[in-house]
Amino acid sequence: MAVRIVFLGPLREAAGTDSLEVSAPLDWDGLLAVAGSVVAEQLRSARVHVACAGEVLADKTALRAEDGDEVALLPPVSGG
Question: What is the pTM of this model?
Answer without folding.
Answer: 0.93
